[in-house]
Amino acid sequence: MLGRTDSRRRLVFLVLVLLVVCVAIVARLAWWQVVRGADLTAMAHTQTHLRMVVDNQRGTIYDRSGTVVLATTVDRVRVVAAAKGLSPAAQGVDVARLGELLALDAAGRIELAERLRSGRPYVVLARDIESETAEHLRDAIRDGSLVGISVEAESARVYPQAGGGQGSTLAAQLTGFVNRDGLGQYGVEQFYDDQLAGSPTVYEAQKDASGRAIADTELIVQPGVPGADLRLTIDAGLQLAVEQEVLAAWIADHAATVSAVVMDPYTGEIYAYASYPSYDANDYRAIAADDPSRFVDPLISLVYEPGSVFKMLTVVAALEQGTASPTTRYLDERVLVLDDGRALIRNADRKAMGELTLEDAIAYSRNIVATKVAFGLAPTLGESAAILHEVWTRLGFGEPTGIDLAGEVGGLVRDPSISAWREIDVANAAFGQGVAVTPIQLARAFAAMVNGGTLVRPHVVAAIGDGPSSMGGGDQALAPELVPTLTAMLNHVTAGPWYADGALVPGYTVGGKTGTGQIWDASTQAWKVNVFNHTFVGYIGRRVGHPDLIVAVRINEAQSRSDLLTVGSHELFRRVATDAVQTPALLPELPPQPDPVGPADR
């Protein structure tokens, strides 16, 4: 009798195997349908649909009037080729015909031939082709005299206003430019890049077997946001005039750079903002290849030792501490010996003027007196250093002003609580050496000295789209009761014999302070000989006690002392200030004149 072939254990094993297989199949199905379901759906959608991303047009930049265009976007075309399929003969035909239509020189034709020989399926041959030339290209493509060539639409950023100097566009270092990738670089274009660019519109359409969009299936899946227009605080007419002024000073003084800024001391609005050398923002690629340092803005991105303009900060500290007044008298000497004979301080003219009031010492810019004022701030050297440093930081030095331009730096200010100052450090600090600042920081600090004590936030954009800019505002940095004294002391400087002829503007109240800073040469570890930074920061007003504008100018690395300059910093101030007050509709209405106090009111 044969043995039985069935087995209970075998049956259980087979059932278990089937269960494991079923579970594995269900798990795999769950993996694809649940875990990877969304991915598979997206892959299927990609195979059947075409996605198109279209950039919205970038916003336009206007001057303060809203009528003068400083930057805009225009439609241009680019020339492209399918170089991969072109025979040598066809390449020669294209080079000859494109060279004629695009007016290429010999070097341009050689470069064109190299691109066509690349063998790539898509090669850009030329950009920013204007409409008339583009039409001639289309005619040549239609009649067959160009082979494998096509034209495509593209947007180009243009800066239509000529600047104050040859080869420059108006306010180039303020506006910046837009690169080939559509990104803002420097200035307003970079700072407000998100608002100007907006966001792209995304379309989807079903596609046929050849990958082309099927008509009437297009849908907007992301509407996008158009680029916002900007209205600046800059007055285009004044900007042009100031650019011409800095160019003239640059030529006359053989300077490395010359800069000027005009600001409303009460709001921080910038009315003009100019430096030379400047550049043509339409041709930024050539500048990038030749001298990219011209993109760096001297008003906010380059620091320097300002010299005697900083004496007014020493005055602020003394007035606040009650250790001096405008009429306090000091002995001006030829030399001060400091740090046990290891350091000497002298006046710029190496002379002594004897006993002077503080206001006269500031007007004559005496280093010796400024040093004595700084030493007298407190009983100890460390306390005096701390007081000076605190005044500096309260008036914004050592940190960016927050101006709405890309690339601002905060300057260099040594903290005496971290590294103790010696006597020579306090002396240098008293007259603006051993500290590095920007002209925009100086303009803001001097604005606080005359506007009631508010440290305003400088800004260049008045409106974004249809709404006002959120820039502006400020914090109280000085006691208001100090301001009349500071304003009068600045006026006393310009009334003196050294500056009156060059700085005063008939019919207006003017005040300010010069600075002549030495320049350290890192390569030789010594001060440069007969090369200086010249600065003037001051105000101009239509009424005594009410300054209308702050003007800060810097003549960088001029090849002579201030008294030998062809155009001194105080004279450049006068020219710029005169241009500003004569600009139509720039200055606001004056506030009402305070009523005089009569005997019955006392």
CATH architecture of the domain at 236-289 and 297-581: 3-Layer(aba) Sandwich
CATH third-level topology of the domain at 236-289 and 297-581: Beta-lactamase
Q: CATH homologous superfamily of the domain at 236-289 and 297-581, by name?
A: DD-peptidase/beta-lactamase superfamily
Distance between the termini: 141 Å
Low-confidence segments, given as residue ranges, are 598-602
Tell me the name of the CATH class of the domain at 236-289 and 297-581.
Answer: Alpha Beta
SS-based structural class? alpha+beta
**Count of DSSP H/I helices:** 19
Strand content: 15-25%
- Profile the largest sheet: 7 strands, mixed
Global morphology: globular
- What integer value in Å does the Rg equal? 34 Å
How many β-strand stretches?
23
Mean pLDDT, rounded to whole units?
88
Into which percent range does the helicity of residues fall? Answer: 25-40%
What does the secondary structure layout of this molecule look like, with pairings?
Blueprint: H1 8-35, H2 37-48, E1 49-54, E2 61-62, E3 69-81, H3 88-101, H4 106-116, E4 123-129, H5 131-142, E5 149-158, H6 172-175, E6 177-178, E7 184-185, H7 187-191, H8 193-197, E8 201-206, E9 219-222, E10 230-232, H9 236-253, E11 257-263, E12 270-276, H10 284-290, H11 311-321, E13 329-332, E14 335-338, E15 343-346, E16 354-357, H12 358-363, H13 367-375, H14 381-394, H15 423-430, H16 439-450, E17 454-456, E18 461-464, E19 467-468, E20 474-476, H17 483-495, H18 500-503, E21 509-521, E22 526-541, E23 549-558, H19 569-581
Parallel strand pairs: 2-10
Antiparallel strand pairs: 1-8, 2-3, 3-4, 3-5, 6-7, 8-9, 10-18, 11-12, 11-23, 13-16, 14-15, 17-20, 18-19, 21-22, 22-23
